[in-house]
Amino acid sequence: MMKRLHASRGRALPALVIVQLVVAVIALAVLVVVALEIRPLLEEKEQLEASIGDYQSQIARYREDIERLDVQLQETRRELEETRERLEQTADMSRFTHPLDPVDLKDLFSRYPHASRGLELIMHLRERNVGWRLGGQNPDVGFDSPSFAAFVLEELGLLEGGFEPGESLLATSRRLFERLPPTGSPEVGDLVFYPAGYVLFFYRDQDGQPFVIGMTPMGIAALDPDFAVPVGFRRSGLSR
């Protein structure tokens, strides 16, 4: 009986091994099949992730483009508004232009040799056709009114330490106003400040009639002082 039992166990062991091998082969086959099926899915997933990254980059670029276009649109609107205001101001100022002729200039240069330095520089810039430019800081670009006045003073060595413009025409005018000594009434060569931010130099023609000159929306122009009510006067250093 013991012999039969050992013989039975001997036959069962190979059968068990075979079963285990079959199970292992089946499991391996299943793994291979699963791997073959998963690989395309993984590749597709990578492609989708790459596509999503591309789309996100495109969306970011589109947003940047939209923001840039919005800034350009706002800038265009601002320029159109400035142009409209400039046309209106030019139309108003043109009614107050003060004629200047060579006789006036010669008379000024002889009577006010020191103060005429400012007028000489202004007329030189006028001959160069230096024009109006809101926020402009040099003759090649142009100037607004307070920046032009500051440039003339700097060129003549009358504004030490340089001058930084403000964020707007009024802010620049206010900064220049605060930099210069006050006076109750202007002398030849002094500065006259107006409500809209304009800053013009005060002079008198050969007949003793006052006029102001400087940068305006219609360019460098001489005007009657009463084209607007002044808000104050400042010494320029030219009147001594």
Short description:
The chain contains five helices and eight strands. With 240 residues, it is α+β, with helices and mostly antiparallel strands.
Report on this structure.
This protein is α+β, with helices and mostly antiparallel strands and 240 residues long. Helix content is 57%, strand content 12%. Helix 4 runs parallel beside helix 5. The protein is rod-shaped and about 135 Å long. The mean pLDDT is 81.
Question: What CATH architecture of the largest domain do you see?
Answer: Alpha-Beta Complex
Major sheet summary line: 6 strands, antiparallel
Number of helices: 5
* Share of helix, binned: 55-70%
- Average pLDDT across residues? 81
Determine the N-to-C terminus distance.
Answer: 142 Å
Domain module count: 2
CATH class of the largest domain: Alpha Beta
Low-confidence stretches: none
The overall strand count is 8
- Strand ordering within the main sheet: 3-8-4-5-6-7
Radius of gyration: 42 Å
Computed structural class: alpha+beta
Task: Write the element-wise H/E pattern from the N-terminal end onward.
Answer: HHHEEHHEEEEEE
**CATH fold-level label of the largest domain:** endopeptidase fold (from Nostoc punctiforme)
Coiled coil: 45-93
Keywords: Coiled coil, Membrane, Transmembrane, Transmembrane helix
Transmembrane segments: 12-36
